[in-house]
Design a protein that fits this description.
- The chain has 621 residues and is an alpha+beta fold.
- 51% of the residues lie in helices and 15% in strands.
- The strands form five sheets. Strands 5, 6, 13, 14, 15 and 16 form a six-stranded mixed sheet that branches. A four-stranded antiparallel sheet has the order 2-3-1-4, with helices on one face.
Amino acid sequence: MRPIPVGASLAMIFSLVIAFVISPWASMIVFRKEAHLPETDASGLHPGTPETVAPDPAQHHAGPDEVPETRFTQLYRKVMHALLTQARVRWMFFGGVVALLLGAMSLVGFGVVKVKMLPFDNKSEFMVQLDLPAGTPREDALAVGQDLARRLLKEPTVKDVQVYAGEAAPFTFVGMVRHSFLRQEAEMVDIQVNLVPKGDRKEQSHAIVVRLRPELEKISNAAGARMKLVEIPPGPPVMDTIVAEIYGPSDAERARLSNEVLAAFKSVDGIVDVDSTLNAPNPKISLVLDREKAALHGVAPAHVIQTLYMAGQGHQAGAFHILRGSSQVPVVVQLAPGKRQRLEQILQLTVPGARGMVPVRELVTVKEGREEAAIHHKNLMPVTYVFSDLAGAIESPVYALAALNKKIDAMKGTAGAPVPRLGLAHPENTESLSLKWDGEWHITLEVFRDLGLAFAAVLVLIFVLVVGWFESFQIPWVILVPIPLSLIGIIPAHGLMGAFFTATSMIGFIAGAGIIVRNSIILVDFIELKLKEGMSLESAVEEAGVVRFRPMLLTASAVLVGSAVMLADPIFQGLAISLMAGEVAATLLSRIAVPVLYYLVARRGHAANLQRQAALAAEEE
């Protein structure tokens, strides 16, 4: 996001130079006829003796502070007169503004506008990951993957599909965090799905994934597989959208709480692709050599081990040259794939003994078990992960976690105590059970926390600058009031557009604050200018909204036109909505709120001081 503030800051600096250098020069050329000035030569000087052109007395030229008296202007004057003279009307106005602000903010609480780190992007690919029961042969896993691939190819929006069984698909940036490159087991299948170009389809990639999920789940559930639909997110990749990290003093306690959290995940509508690190490891068959029997048959233990290794992994017996070949071809002795997957075929192998060939069956003992489960650590502490994605009913972690926290409230931690839940912090130790929310929620908290702190620093800097300019500690509060008023337009606009309130929306809110403050400053500056000229406070306040509304309206129009190009972009749509809706709401409300607030503050003495200074300056002249 750094290019946004860097570009905006440089644009403001260059626009300031243009406003003081290019604009006056261009105005001299464009408005020369209207000003009745003679033409100039190439040097900019008037050739010859300038002639004095008398203005036409029949024409009335409006002064710089005069505007046409339209119906809207007359209505504005009536409203302002009522606000300045009647306290009850003022309270009703400010009460209505506060009610609008609270109503707009409540849209987030009621879920009409959803908060999310970043919206879903429109990508040209996604991936299907299948985890079949541990021990499933690769051929069976491949068959399930091919069934899903055939279903996917029936979709007109799907261009092509690649199926990887027992081997990890080429992983993306997301796969680096999800450790997709470790998916090398026989029961794991990766399906890479490539969509047709964006211009050839009407649906966005996320909508396609949501629509296909029920059909794909039917196929995967019938095979007893755990399915995940992995989209490429526009923001920082995380292990999953919702990740619960469970810490505890022992494996058994962590497993108990993890199973309860896993059940809570599955019970919430909208939480999909639920999985954990508690899955049973692959089955394991151990052939234990009986050394006593081997000695009785005169069989060397190394011969048994070499024979079993050759049958399963293969043994290079030599190499030979192919005619016109550039390299040697190895000769590998190994059982056929169909035979080495059957224990009976392996046990029928024979090894040389003192009295002839001896079957392996007579020399080994078969023991069945499972491989050791993977051990996970984070910050040097043992941890168990429960993770899931969101689709359909809930697509924002904020509301999913609210539903999950209600269910976790009923769970018991160490010694029957409630389970502590952490957001940004990490547990200090593992002496008691604890749960930390990670994934997209952790990134969301960090981003909005950092943006909030940055916005607070911006407000402080603006306050200091305004205090130095107006030499007052009260006027800056009047100027900063319209900033939260922009939320009256921003949040409802997100609801009307069906858009998430994202990090880019927050950036738009912060960026729009500078434009909004500028509008407030030109109103206050005009009022004080008129007060120094001797105009009464009521008249100056009223004229400010009339005269300065045109540049405010032009600024708002420029923001609307400049931001409209971003509405079609799924990522920066929130930025455009915040700039456009916030500017419209703040412009309309600040035209009334700022002058009225200034009137309430200045009537206690500030206006009188300005008029007194103007009178003293006039006497000195």
